[in-house]
Task: structure prediction
Amino acid sequence: MKIIWQLFGVHISFVAIIVTLLLAWLVWPRKYPQTRKRLLRSSGIILLGSILLGLNTYWPREYDKNYLDQDLPAEIETTSLKDLADARDFYIGVALTPNPAHHSLIAKEFNSVTAENHLKPGRLLVDAANWKFDFSKADELLTFAEANGMRMRGHTLIWGKFPGMTFPKQWIEQINGASDKKQTMEALIKRYIETVMGHFKGRIPAWDVVNEPMAGKGLYPSIFSNSMGEEYIDFSFHVAREVDPDCSLFLNEQIQDYDGPQGTAFLALLKRLVERGVPIDGVGLQSHHINRIHDTDALERYIRSIGQLGLKVEITELDVRLRLFGNEKDPYQAQGDQFKKIVEVCLNDPACSGVTLWGLTDRNNWMDSVPPFKWKSPNAPNMFDEDMNRKPAYLGIWNALNEATSN
Ligand code: 9MR
Result:
């Protein structure tokens, strides 16, 4: 069943055409045998085409790891990414999961971390009915960061996408049953932000106050936007500012196409927030390369436009699917070049103060567990490979930082 879904699931239009042709064949008057034969033949050809396309899309690929034979500059052993970034007053960060095996490497290479999951509502608010929180894992990660002189970014407070993980499921019932949805939502947001930001006050200097508010050109339809409209963003930032006036408050979003409709709509949203006096300090551009290679010239213009609104920028969740470079001569090298370009773009604009990588090694990455990417291997979106070898992505980032530091 799974393989059938893999082959046909995303080629739903093919399925629709085949079904239409077969239905036509079924109802076509039998006195036209030639036409009926053609209908049947066409559906067969489209079926075959769809199978071939499915196989091509999902057939696992392997690319040569030419980087294993290449010599790395000797300074790479003595000068880490963190050393280079510190010299530029720049953040180089990574998404952090509790994995002691990686902790010394992380402490050596990074001056910033973001908890990949442990600061999300689903992990913290363990008993929503009784407002019971469990901060133990998040506290552990923060203590590790502090002990190693790394900043921790807070990710994330208000996010309406996945009930249970990004907000408690109970809130849906609460909102549905409320006579004044806006007031009820405000109370939930306020209590949540006060408790969580309050717990980490003074120790987490930047928070993603709202995450992924957009769906295409509009607002993502969540319990937050459905009950308050765009105002839920304003409200969350005002509460956050009141709780910790020294914290940098970010709006974090994944933009697929900086020059396209979503990018334009997100800029317009930022402009409205600034005009309304919402206390927003910065914008997190996630930069997951999932379905396409991002246009770095467009990213450069985009960061400039955000800077012109008086806001800071950070690249907050950079990863790059290797398979996107499947047509290149050396996909690993092409992937590394893209990492380098993104870091360079950020380094070149004073509004952009850091880049965080969404994962350390290709051995564990979120794409390998999320359909349809998990079926399109290799994703290999990080800078160390499964055996912890440095990939061209590592060298690309190192070179970008090194060149910026020597200039
Ligand atoms: O990498 C994270 C994965 O382990 C979680 O299951 C998922 C849902 O909480 O979130 C992933 O991280 C996401 C981040 O929080 C927001 N932007 C998109 C990231 C990748 O999906």
Summary: The mean pLDDT is 95. The chain has two domains: 2-58, 69-406. The pocket of 9MR is lined by residues 116-117, 120, 162, 165, 211, 286, 317, 366 (CB under 6 Å).
